[in-house]
Inverse folding.
């Protein structure tokens, strides 16, 4: 196995800024085509299981279940967990990038151990 190169600052910037702005939410929607659509959305779930056109398709970032026909599903049936994971990444990835940058600064030569910035 090869040792991958660390991400560059430019790659970290791109990763943090490329996706649709957050926060993201898990939504349960319904219509005759999606049948209990599990989606990641820029709008919180209302609990009403809206049917299209009562929701704006431009609010949907990703889907983890579209049942009819079976366009989107997983063999392990972790569709809700997958949607939660995807939604959480919008806020978590920028935090992880900030941690990477903080740790890189701490590793810079010439900084005494007690003087590293957070």
């Amino acid at each position: 196995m090869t040792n991958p190169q660390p991400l560059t600052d430019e790659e970290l910037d791109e990763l943090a800024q490329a996706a649709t702005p957050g926060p993201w939410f898990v939504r349960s929607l319904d219509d005759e085509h999606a049948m209990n659509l599990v989606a990641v959305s820029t709008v919180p779930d209302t609990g009403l299981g809206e049917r299209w056109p009562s929701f704006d398709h431009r609010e949907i970032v990703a889907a983890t279940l579209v049942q009819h026909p079976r366009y989107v599903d997983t063999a392990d049936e972790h569709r809700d967990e997958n949607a939660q994971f995807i939604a959480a990444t919008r806020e978590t990835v920028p935090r992880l990038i900030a941690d990477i940058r903080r740790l890189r600064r701490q590793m810079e030569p010439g900084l005494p151990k007690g003087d590293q910035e957070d």
